């Protein structure tokens, strides 16, 4: 698809505000420079969190895997190391009973004066789920997530004891539960299966994506919003998109850096694959989609680059935005124009990239949105920085 880099008006779908999200790294190891230690480097975490806050980030994801640090414990620490940053706790419903998760999240929310967010992960790999005793298939896992959401909300809002007997959970006389700081905690859904859309559209406050081409994200957003409307919702889930930006002072420098990075990232991924014995096509639809985009084309739209996805078998958030800070900021605004109001950017050079994004990217996006608010018109960011739209190069 081609995007006109200089359309006149702000589209009706555009989000008026944006919140920037990062991912909390717990030590200096990166895909570019993997270090053997898997432990928590507390000094690094302190510095990372402080840098996020100084750079103007709004939130940070605490991811979850069977071999990761515990996302709840880490979220609590992040909450105490920051003043404004929202800890987004990734939770897999198979790992915790829903009333207990409600209690943990409400506690985190109180400890952070209302900053807690939960990101529900239904599980994208049967092998990974089995590591912690979960043998449900994906359809059943999403049905459990749906029930989990209902119980979380009731646990936060019911004013008298209540009982529940569902397909996955049963309990009697719970409540009133420990309350969040000021009302229910935002619930986000990750996943691109049909069931993720059904549940996310009907029940979630936030629906999240990895970085996809604009045309594809547009139809996915329409799908989420259509399901929300069909479910009789007055509101719509907020949209979260995720990228791995690679920026430098000029377009050429950024693209050379990207080429150098992808070789290093591929090497790291191959060594980890060899060591841990991963193989085959990923089972999660989000990764399958990323690989499909990568097979079709290397560069999409203004700055989306898929070679990083191809090099890592679409593992996790893996599509990049490449260019100058201006081009990458303009590319982010392209997604804001489609309705994304939560933008996750985390680089391959984790801590240094937080500094650079905070200094060079976030202010440009915010300046464009402030201009729109003041004038009702688009600023010049997108028109002045066409990136890959200006050439057929880099393909
Ligand atoms: C923004 C975002 C963050 C995610 N974070 C995690 C995570 O921390 N841990 C995890 O196992 N999966 C994570 N996922 C992956 C999906 O939620 C996961 O693959 C899903 O459980 C099933 O995927 P599917 O519906 O696409 O097949 C994340 C996905 C998105 C979009």
Could you give the topology of this structure?
Layout: E1 19-23, H1 42-55, E2 59-62, H2 71-81, E3 86-91, H3 98-111, E4 117-121, H4 126-130, H5 138-157, E5 162-165, E6 170-174, E7 187-190, H6 194-203, E8 206-210, H7 214-230, E9 238-247, H8 251-276, H9 285-296, E10 299-300, E11 304-305, H10 307-311, E12 320-323, H11 325-337, E13 340-345, H12 350-375, H13 381-384
Parallel strand pairs: 1-2, 1-13, 2-3, 3-4, 4-7, 7-8, 8-9, 9-12, 9-13
Antiparallel strand pairs: 5-6, 10-11, 11-12
How far apart lie the N and C ends? 14 Å
CATH architectural group of one domain: Alpha-Beta Barrel
Unreliable segments of 5+ consecutive residues: none
List each distinct ligand once: flavin mononucleotide
Mean pLDDT: 95
Give the CATH class of one domain. Answer: Alpha Beta
The CATH topology of one domain is given as: TIM Barrel
The share of residues in helices is 40-55%
- Please give the order of strands in the largest beta sheet: 1-2-3-4-7-8-9-13
In CATH, the homologous superfamily of one domain goes by the name Luciferase-like domain
By secondary-structure content and strand pairing, the structural class works out as alpha/beta
In short:
With 395 residues, this protein is α/β, with parallel strands linked by helices. It has helices spanning 42-55, 71-81, 98-111, 126-130, 138-157, 194-203, 214-230, 251-276, 285-296, 307-311, 325-337, 350-375, 381-384, and strands spanning 19-23, 59-62, 86-91, 117-121, 162-165, 170-174, 187-190, 206-210, 238-247, 299-300, 304-305, 320-323, 340-345.
């Amino acid at each position: 698809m081609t995007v006109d880099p200089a359309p006149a008006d702000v589209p009706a779908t555009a989000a008026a505000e944006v919140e920037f999200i990062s991912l909390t790294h717990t030590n200096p190891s990166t895909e570019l420079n993997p270090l053997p230690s898997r432990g928590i480097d507390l000094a690094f975490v302190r510095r990372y969190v402080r840098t996020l806050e100084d750079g103007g980030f709004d939130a940070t994801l605490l991811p979850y895997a069977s071999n990761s640090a515990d996302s709840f414990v880490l979220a609590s620490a992040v909450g105490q190391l920051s003043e404004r940053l929202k800890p987004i706790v990734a939770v897999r419903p198979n790992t915790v009973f829903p009333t207990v998760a409600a209690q943990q999240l409400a506690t985190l929310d109180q400890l952070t004066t209302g900053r807690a967010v939960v990101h529900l992960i239904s599980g994208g790999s049967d092998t990974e789920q089995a590591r912690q005793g979960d043998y449900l298939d994906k359809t059943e896992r999403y049905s459990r997530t749906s029930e989990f959401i209902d119980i979380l909300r009731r646990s936060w809002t019911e004013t008298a004891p209540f009982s529940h007997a569902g397909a996955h959970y049963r309990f009697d006389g719970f409540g009133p539960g420990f309350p969040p700081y000021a009302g229910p905690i935002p619930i986000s859904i990750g996943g691109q299966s049909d069931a993720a859309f059904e549940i996310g559209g009907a029940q979630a406050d936030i629906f999240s994506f990895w970085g996809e081409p604009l045309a594809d994200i547009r139809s996915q957003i329409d799908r989420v919003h259509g399901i929300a409307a069909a479910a009789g919702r007055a509101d719509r889930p907020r949209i979260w998109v995720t990228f791995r930006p690679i920026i430098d002072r000029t377009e050429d420098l950024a693209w050379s850096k990207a080429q150098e990075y992808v070789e290093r990232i591929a090497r790291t991924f191959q060594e980890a694959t060899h060591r841990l014995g991963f193989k085959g096509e990923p089972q999660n639809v989000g990764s399958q989609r990323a690989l499909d985009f990568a097979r079709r084309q290397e560069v999409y739209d203004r700055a989306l680059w898929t070679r990083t996805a191809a090099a890592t078998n679409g593992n996790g958030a893996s599509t990049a935005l490449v260019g100058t800070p201006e081009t990458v900021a303009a590319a982010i605004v392209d997604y804001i124009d489609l309705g994304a109001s939560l933008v996750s950017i985390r680089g391959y050079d984790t801590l240094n990239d937080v500094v650079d994004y905070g200094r060079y990217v976030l202010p440009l996006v915010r300046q464009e949105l402030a201009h729109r608010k003041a004038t009702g018109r688009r600023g010049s960011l997108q028109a002045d920085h066409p990136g890959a739209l200006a050439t057929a190069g880099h393909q």
